[in-house]
Every structure is written in C-alpha cells, then in structure tokens.
Amino acid sequence: MGVRGKVRMSVSVVKAAMKEMRRSVTYMPRPGDGAPRGVTLIPGDGIGPLVTNAVEQVMEAMHAPLYFEKYEVHGDMRRVPEEVLDSIRKNKVCLKGGLRTPVGGGVSSLNVQLRKDLDLYASLVNCFNLPGLPTRHDNVDIVVIRENTEGEYSGLEHEVVPGVVESLKVMSKFCSERIAKYAFEYAYLNNRKKVTAVHKANIMKLADGLFLESCRQVATKYPGIKYNEIIVDNCCMQLVSKPEQFDVMVTPNLYGNLVANTAAGIAGGTGVMPGGNVGADHAVFEQGASAGNVGKEKQVEQKKANPVALLLSSAMMLRHLQFPSFADRLETAVKRVISEGKYMTKDLGGDSTTQQVVDAVIANLD
Q: Pfam families per the record (predicted)?
C-alpha cells in the first residue's frame, strides 16, 4: 500500500474513532424525560405548510418523542387567536412557518404580536457555511441575537398632521440589559469567544447610547469573552468583506433584522439558516432569516420550497427540549444531503421538490 493509501486509511480510522467517541459521551436524562412533548404547530402562509409538513414527516420517521397541536393562523387575521396563545403557553414550545405581513394599511404583523404577547425578547439566527454549498466566503459561523420587543418595532406610530407621521423608537435599560445578558450567556454556554454590539450611537446618542452602556456593563461580568462594538453601517460593509471576524452579534431590533439577513446571504441564503425566538418561559422556532418571507407563489405551486432552514430550526427545538441525540441525527442527515448535492432546491442551484429533499433527509437518518 502506498503512502497516500495509508494516509487515507488512517484518516478514515480516526474519523470512525471520533464517531465512536462522540457516541460514548452520553446525555443522562431524568426519569420521565422521554415522555412525548406537545409542540404547538403553526403552518402559516405561502411555503409555510410545505416546510412545516417536511418537519412533521422527518419527526415521524425519527420517532421523535413529541407530538404537534396544529392551528391555522394567517397573516391577514387581526390577532393571533387566544386558543393558539393558550396552546403555546401550555406547551412552552412552538414551531411555525412564515406569516404574511401586509405592507401598509395599518394592519400589524402577527409575527411581532406573537413575540410581544409571549415576551419572546431574544431572536437568534445562526448563519454558517454548510459543506457542499458554495459561498463567496469560508469560515462563516455567526450568531445574530437581536432584541425582539421594542426599538423601531415598538409599533408606536401616529399621524401628527396630514402628511406627517411620527414613529417612536423605544429603548429601555431593562430590555437592553436582558438582551445583552442573553447574548453573553449564549456565548459562554456555547464556547463562543467574542460578542460584538451593533449600534448607531454616533447619531442616536440617547437610544443607542443606552443600549451600548448596557452591553458594556454586562460585558464586565464575562471577562473570558472578548467584547467589541461596531457602527451598523460599517458592520454591513465588514460583513460582506470579512465575515469571519464576527462570532456572536447583539443588536437592537431593526439592526438585527438587517444584519441577520445580510449574514444569511453571505453564508448560503435564507433557505438554510435556522433560528428561533425565546423568552423566559416560551420559545418559537422558525426559519432564521426572513421568517416573515412566505416565498414566491411559483414555489408553492411547484412545491419546490426549501425545507432546510426549518428542519435545522426544528433540530434547535429538539435540543431545546433536551432531546440532543435526535437533534444530532437530524442535523447530520441534513448536512449529508447538502454535502452530496444531489437533492437541492432552486435557491441552492438545483431543481428538486420539497418532497425530494425530505425523502433524501429521511434516507440519511442514522
């Protein structure tokens, strides 16, 4: 056997050994932790029913210890029905597709209402390279954590006089501190090395100044994590030129929405980026970037929506529910399908249907 053959053989042996090592470090549940957990399911609008159905199929194939309570909610409703909120409060966990948000017309976003009603104050989007998916930049692994309840999305708008509208950006010390604490706690628990605060305090000196002051105070309690700050316009430029410099980013509401979608575009597109919204008592998992984007009508008609983002979000949900081995199996299967490149939807350069991707993921489950 030549040198190259020996190297290949030794690499495969090491990989096999590492795989066995991973399995030997086990999760020790408490008695009763294996009981099926209820999860509220909101298919939503547009591609929502397609991608949530993909999750249902994969969960059934894995025999995951959960069951869904499904509710029809649509973006043109005036409010989220109380029975849906009651279900989420009972289950504490929800999986949802996108809800169409009317543009203008005074109709508020149900996505925003849901976050406020359940106090889901932290939005988390994980943007990272997937092996087999070509991107302009390598080594991207960014977590964007944005404040989810106030800022520009406070919803306080009124017409002062005809033709003049006043929109209030609300920033409070309480909300700024708790989102900063969540970001640093996330970094600490996930072995992340740096937290970057994104702001516009050079112009909005009081509002964003308060946000920065809160981040600085919290940072002093985590000396092992590097802390820095960046102005939001420079942040966007740095993201598209050197995204590998960012690790965890903490932002006010609007900036986080823009930064997360930019980072998602750099790392492979919104169709593959997982995310969720979490508060002290409840969590809602959905497509990470452009969660309110319900897709194009053609995707729905041809049934070619990309289910990867929501599948990865559901893996986050499984880990949140303390079912780590199921989360690992699902993530590994999705990554295998992407790496093989045979079944890819149009946004990833292929022409596969949603169902073909789902079937491929199920076939790759260990």
A: Iso_dh
pTM of the model: 0.89
Determine contact, residues 171/207, Cβ cutoff 8 Å.
yes
324-340 helix and 354-363 helix, angle to the nearest 10 degrees: 120
Q: Quote the pLDDT of residue 256.
A: 93
Give the domain ranges of the chain: 36-120+275-365, 136-267
- Specify whether domain 136-267 bears CATH 1.10.10.10: no
Nearest to 284 by CA among 59, 52, 101: 52
The residue count of the chain comes to: 366
Distance CA 358, CA 321 (A): 22
For residues 251 and 198, the answer to whether their CB atoms sit within 8 Å is: yes
Number of other residues whose CB lies within 10 A of the CB of residue 366: 10
Question: Does domain 36-120+275-365 fall into CATH 3.40.718.10?
Answer: yes
Alpha-carbon distance of 296 to 46, in angstroms, equals 7
Given a contact cutoff of 8 angstroms between Cβ atoms, the answer to whether 219 and 227 are in contact is yes
With b meaning 16 or more CB within 10 Å and e meaning fewer, what string describes 93-107? bbbbbbbbbeeeeee
User: Could you give the angle at which helices 324-340 and 48-62 cross, rounded to 10 degrees?
Assistant: 120
| Alpha helix positions (H), the chain | 3-24, 48-62, 82-91, 110-117, 173-189, 207-219, 232-241, 253-267, 297-302, 308-320, 324-340, 354-363
C-alpha radius of gyration, the chain, whole number: 21
Q: For the segment 286-343, what is each residue's pLDDT rounded down to a tens digit? A: 998 774 457 778 888 888 999 999 999 999 999 999 999 999 999 999 999 999 999 9
Long-range CB pairs of 317-324, under 8 A, 24+ apart, other chains included: 317/39, 317/93, 317/95, 317/276, 317/283, 317/285, 318/64, 318/66, 320/93, 320/276, 320/278, 320/283, 320/285, 321/37, 321/39, 321/66, 321/93, 322/27, 322/29, 322/33, 323/64, 323/65, 323/66, 324/27
The span from the CA of 365 to the CA of 89, in Å, is 32
Sheet containing strand 274-278, edge to edge, reads 66-70, 37-42, 93-96, 283-287, 274-278, 122-128, 141-147, 248-251, 194-199, 226-231
